[in-house]
Amino acid sequence: MDIQFPAPSADKTVLEDAGAFTPRFDSAGLVTAVVTDVRDGVLLMVAHMNAEALRLTIETGMAHYYSRSRQKLWKKGETSGNLQMVHEMRTDCDQDVVWIKVSMTGHDAACHTGRRSCFYRTVRLGDGEATLVIADDQRHFDPKTVYEGQ
C-alpha cells in the first residue's frame, strides 16, 4: 500500500473537516507526535515524524519516528524490544500534530532511560530557580544493558 499525502488545503475549513488526511509538515518536513498509552492515557513521549515515518506507522500499525538528533528514521523499540502498537491516531485542527494511542510490548517502557514515560521529572520553582525533581524513578529495564554498543 503506498500511502500518499496530498498537499494541505489553503482553506482552513477543509483542513478542519472530515476528508483526506493532509498533514502539514513544518519547514524541516516534520510533524509533532504526541504518544499516550491506550490503556490509561499516560503521556509516554513526544517525538517527530517525517512523511516516511508517518506512512510506515499507518501502513504497519507500528510506531515509526524521525530522530532529529540522529537524522534518520527510527522504528520505536527496534533495539529495546519496547515496540509501540498503534490503536488510534488523531490529528489536530491544523493537521500539524498527531496524537497516537499505543500499547507497548517488551518492558512497557517508552523512555530510553528505562522509565515508562519520558516525562518522569517535575519542574519546581524555589528561591528564584527552576529545578528538576524525579517524580518516577522506577526503571523497567537497564538502559546500559539494552543499548550497549549503540
Write a structural description:
Strands 2-1-6-5 form a four-stranded mixed β-sheet, covered by helices on one side. Strands 3-4 form a two-stranded antiparallel sheet. It has helices at residues 12-15, 51-60, 143-146, and strands spanning 31-37, 43-49, 64-67, 72-75, 84-91, 97-104, 121-126, 129-134. The chain has a domain at 12-113: Ubiquitin-like (UB roll). The longest helix has 10 residues, at 51-60. It contains three helices and eight strands; from the N terminus they run αββαββββββα. Strand 3 (64-67) and strand 4 form a beta hairpin. By secondary structure, it is mainly beta. The model has no long low-confidence stretch (mean pLDDT 93).
